[in-house]
Design a protein that fits this description.
The protein is α/β, with parallel strands linked by helices. It has helices spanning about 55-70, 120-135, 140-145, 155-165, 220-230, 270-290, 295-300, 305-315, 340-345, 350-355, 370, and strands at about 75-80, 85-95, 105-110, 150, 235, 240, 240-250, 255, 290-295, 315-325. The protein binds zinc ion.
């Protein structure tokens, strides 16, 4: 499955974005500049013992190869550029993948935070699960045929590359966007979304902080790209994406909105919406053995992606904090490569469960007729 890159040959030679898809995602993954494919400082891979993790170039090579091998169900395009100019790819998986069919849509993303490399591996595992299971596993086949899957494996490629430059880890979290002369670099992408941005002491206004929210909502190119893609899926006034997962590490948690307040209703969240979140989140946690709770309960955050996804777009959106459980010390993000397989496949059942509810999330509280008619 994994493809070893050889130097810089990973220029995406084949445009895998079909014409019918233009308008879904605006940039074709092609003609990438060589400079965008090198890790800063000439580093070509993760540190020793972690080489099974995907660098940006390896991730690009893998998804491009998968799309080439499965052109009937997989297409790769881009949601836009990172601050340093890397394409941020998105993988679409569905039957008739080159047609914009009217099917419930699922969005999955990984790696808002640079050092949380297992999140990219999780997204890639989901792609593999769907592709490998299609045509052999009846449940997966059905969930590819009747859904549209959108998967963004690496929201923050600049940060990911920076985190491994020089052959060792740097515990980097933010993106790589400068904050002006003499100021520390980077914005915390998961504090940069616009819904109640900076409202509630769940982020920092200081560029030196790991939780710096940026100078304005959506000041980061990477969050703009996510926003623009999600907004592009509003068709005929209706958001096509119904459910969303964003993968982070660590903590082994399934978290739902609100992230900025302990309130369970208000700001557009009804009592029924909250019940749906609790039911879906709890059911996913039963499948992966994680802890399920409202995001605010872990710690309050503002400008968080899931609050925007639900508050602004009405999408049932969850953060999944991957292995390991809480604690784990200052290197807790750097899970040994031997655990990539077990700790990502562990979530497959929860992901498929959520996808199975994407046609009408309210059905989990017995109110499909009321909300989905
Ligand atoms: Zn994170």
């Amino acid at each position: 499955m994994r493809i070893r890159p050889t130097g810089l040959l990973i220029v995406i030679a084949t445009c895998v974005l079909m014409p019918a898809q233009v308008g879904l995602a605006r940039t074709m993954v092609s003609g990438l500049d060589d400079a965008t494919l090198t890790v800063p400082g000439g580093t070509t891979d993760f540190p020793p013992g972690y080489e099974d993790y995907h660098t940006y170039a390896e991730m690009m090579a893998d998804i491009t190869a998968i799309a080439a091998a499965h052109p009937d169900i997989v297409a790769v395009s881009s949601i836009g550029l990172s601050y340093e100019g890397r394409e941020i790819p998105i993988v679409k998986i569905s039957d008739n993948v080159n047609v914009d069919e009217n099917e419930p849509e699922i969005l999955i993303d990984g790696l808002h935070h640079a050092r949380e490399h297992l999140a990219t591996e999780q997204a890639l595992e989901i792609i593999s699960m769907l592709v490998d299971g299609y045509g052999t596993n009846p449940r997966i086949t059905r969930l590819v045929d009747t859904r549209v899957w959108w998967i963004i494996p690496m929201v923050n490629p600049d940060g990911s590359e920076w985190d491994i430059h020089g052959g060792h880890f740097h515990r980097w979290r933010k993106n790589r966007q400068p904050n002006g002369p003499g100021q520390p670099i980077g914005t915390d992408l998961n504090r940069n979304y616009s819904f109640d941005w900076g409202c509630c002491s769940g982020s920092s206004g200081h560029p030196g902080s790991e939780y710096y929210r940026g100078p304005a909502p959506f000041s980061a190119p990477e969050t703009q790209d996510v926003r623009d893609f999600v907004e592009s899926r509003v068709i005929g006034g209706k958001q096509q994406i119904t459910v969303h997962l964003t993968f982070h590490s660590t903590g082994e948690e399934v978290l739902w909105p609100w992230a900025h307040t302990s309130a369970t209703t208000g700001e557009g969240m009804t009592r029924d919406d909250h019940r749906v979140f609790v039911a879906l989140g709890t059911a996913m946690a039963q499948r992966n053995g994680y802890t399920a709770e409202q995001s605010d309960k872990l710690y309050p955050t503002d400008g968080d992606e899931i609050d925007w996804m639900f508050g602004a777009q009405g999408i049932f959106s969850f953060t999944i904090e991957l292995y390991p459980k809480g604690g784990g010390g200052s290197n807790r993000w750097y899970t040994p490569e031997s655990l990539i397989g077990p700790e990502t496949t562990r979530n497959n059942s929860a992901v498929l469960y959520l996808a199975s509810k994407a046609d009408c999330p309210w059905k989990v509280i017995g109110k499909a007729a009321q909300y989905c008619g």
